[in-house]
Amino acid sequence: MASKIILNDVEKKVVQLLKKTADFIENGHNTNAPIEVRLAGGWVRDKLLGLSSDDLDVTLNKINGIDFAKAILEYVNKLDPKAAVPYKKSIGKLTVNPDQSKHLETATLSLYGLDIDFVGLREETYDDKSRIPTVRQGTIETDTYRRDFTVNSLFFNIRSEQVEDITKRGFADLRNKNLVTPISPVRSFLEDPLRILRGLRFASKFSFSLDPSLHDAIQNLGVQKAFKIKVSRERVGEELEKMLRGPNPDLSLHLIYSSHVSSFMFGPVPEEKREVPKRATESATYLFDYFQENFSRLPSLSDDDRFSIWLFTALLPWAHQSIIQKKKLIHIPAVIAKDNLKLNNHAITQLNMNCLYADVFDTLANDLTKASRCELGNIIRQIGKNWPIVILSSALYSYCKQQDAQLPSVFQRFSDLYKLIYDQNLQKSYELKPLLDGKQIIEQMEIKPGPELKTIMEQMISWQFENPEGTVNDLIAYLRSLKNIIEQK
To answer: What kind and span of H or E run contains 439?
Structure first.
């Protein structure tokens, strides 16, 4: 962690322009000097961590965001046209939030290719029903203590070019990778319970630890009640998706379960599955590297593929449970994804597919001698092109349901199954086209359209898997023999 912020060339230009604009306002606009201009929040945190950041938020005293942004445009256009890059027009578009009172008006301005938000210092108050605060003009102190975590409450003073740590612990918490709120965590989470999920996401992204006080606050019944009232299920799903698509999804799941946030994100973990989250997370971390290193024919996994597997991992404690909905078998993880997380239909469908075929692939992987070409082909045809995702998920399922299972041996079994599918050229079984269509079958077998036709079509596909070199004439001969058998019955 750096002890001070080192500005890059673009940031230096931005800082100089902000300084000159503040001087310009003080000298010509009869303002109560001095105007304090600071960069705030995530940009300060990231710069101290040695990370690049283009998320610039400017806080101001004695002037609102829109008036300061207008002053920048006035200063550049009248006095310093060279400050615009490359032309005056490129200074950018001013965006105003019309719903706020005059002294809290905010603006977004594009400077040197960066979209910068300008806002006055503020104070926030909350009620019991909403996490959206009532905002009024504040001070540097109120603006600091309204923020979610101490590591996000640091400021970079434009005049002194020094970092200001109003809480007196932001630096230390950042250095120690400790996530804690600037005020009582119970009060902070009661005001905005979404901070719980944001905290988990920050902690996993930066490999921080949650302060013990946060763990205690999460267990507070009032906080849990506020979470249910103030945080929408859609937002819960959005935050989970950000975590699972982030750089450390394994740490995200560890934090979700170790902090017991899982109970009000997903639901209570079945008693007999208490150890599953830990085993699932550890095995998923190992899974990707193992299959990429040991089986070169595994297709490159997309971000969506990885998300599907991590989502399955997150909900593995419920993978063995299912219900019937509208005459369809729906596994509980898919119900949680739909009702508790409000995820999109694609994610829910893939999750249910992973659960539906987990036991099927586990059985096949246990004894490859019983895995016929016909059975494998039909299964892959039913699943579709995402069958590799289902097999990888099944490997996790298999490991987690056996407490004494050894991870390498489990993954080896599924790697062998994967190899068998390719060796038998079944990897694109979902693209297999019937050699005869329904009309041709009716003509060849001299049958009438009806339910019987569907059964015969399925038998025909199975025959094609069993006879990959078979011709149309071979198939017709098979169908006629099939007809004779049916007639004899």
So the answer is: helix 438-445
Same domain membership, residue 446 and residue 368: no
d(CA 18, CA 88): 16
Contacts (Cβ under 8 Å, ≥6 apart) of 199: 148, 149, 179, 210, 214
Average pLDDT over residues 228-255: 97
Cα distance between residue 337 and residue 316, in whole Å: 12
Instruction: Output the pLDDT for position 83.
Output: 54
Instruction: Considering only CA atoms, give the Rg of the chain.
Output: 30
What lies within 8 Å, CB to CB, of 212 at 6+ separation is none
Domain assignment present for 236: no
Least Cα distance to 419 among 371, 363, 374 occurs for: 371
Domain that residue 371 falls in = 315-430
CA pair distance 190, 204, nearest whole angstrom: 22
Given a cut of 90, whether residue 32 has pLDDT beyond it is: no
Distance CA 69, CA 25 (A): 11
Instruction: Write down which residue in 386, 412, 430 finishes a domain.
Output: 430
Please, which pLDDT band fits residue 140 given cuts at 50, 70 and 90?
very high
pLDDT over 70 (residue 94): no
Distance CA 9, CA 11 (A): 5
Quickly list DSSP for 138-151. --HHHHHHTSS-GG
